[in-house]
Structure formats: structure tokens, C-alpha cells
Amino acid sequence: MLGLVVLMINLPLVHSTWTRWQVERNGTDVTATVVDHDVLGSADDPAYWISYTLPSDIDPDEQEWAREVDQATYDAAVASGSVTVRVLDDNPVTSRAEGQVVGRAGLVATLVADLLLLGFLWVLWRFGRYGRPELLRLEALGDVVAGGDDPGVEELDGIVHVTGALAEATDHDVVLDADGRRVVVVLDGRAVLATPGELVSVRGRRLT
User: What are the helix and strand counts (H, E) for the chain?
Assistant: First the structure.
């Protein structure tokens, strides 16, 4: 699941980068006809846009393709009515205009998503592994009996006294919930004098 999430986040950026590289390396230059142009944005940060159609042998439908270009390319395209476009495998979708400006929105969005994913994984690792108290395993030194005061774990002179809710019980061991701490007690022939759900007490010696 984690691998799928990483793939979904990064695949669009990887695909667009790969396609752009392929166009630059293996594409063919053609002359496209400029059919529209406009300057968007503010005076301090203008964005120069042109729309063009590719030759009919490449794009029989003569669709209009809009691209943001740098100012020099924009001025030349408006003056001449044409612009050089590099096309890969005669596929108009994989075309790149001369002087085309590559937007960074996709890169920024991908990096932000990756950082959020890393943050989530760190939280999961931090509180999943270290946020939980470590598992405590004991060898019972007496029977597991019902009763006790507040749930918890106390250790004195190597002997651990546990009071907690009896979560699971088998012939071999029992599992106690001692105020949120999971304690496994190996019975080693000792009896369990309680039923699951009851508050119990037991003395034991650490196994791990």
C-alpha cells in the first residue's frame, strides 16, 4: 500500500520529465502556425502565452495547443506568425514549443506531497514503535488470581508484580493489559483463577 501511494504521488512528475527528455532527444522540429497570443499576469510578473496549430500531416484535426513561452520567443512568434515546435513520433500531444516555460507547480506539489508522506511515516514510526511501551514478558511465580488495586507494573528486587485486566488466556500463558501496557505471563504450570476481562494480579520474573 505504501509503495502504491509513493507511485501515485510521483508517477505524474516522473512521466512528464521522461516525456520532456524524450522530446528533446528524439523529437523533430516543425514549423507551427501561431493562431492566438496573450500576455497574462501582472505587469511585474507577466506570462507570455501563444496558441498554435501543427502541420496537417502531424495533426490532421489542427487542434490549437497553448504554451507559455519566454518573452523573446513570444515577440518573435507574434511578429512572424509562426513558432518552431519539437514533436515526438508525430504525436501532437508530445510537443514542445521553442522557448517554452516549464511550470514548477507540479514539482512543488509533488515535493509537498512527499514531505507530508515522510512526516506521516515519521509519526507512524515514532509513535508506533516507540510511543507504545515495550512488551513485557514474565515467568509466573504464582497463580494468576482475581483482584488487585490500580492496574500497573511494579518491580522490586527482581520480582515484578503486575495488576491488570486479563485480556487473553491459554494453557501456556496469559496476556494482561496493565494500564495500557501489554504483559505476557508464561504460566509454567501455574493456575489462572480468573476469567477474561477481570482485574487480576500475578508475580513474575522477567524473561525479556
Answer: 3, 13
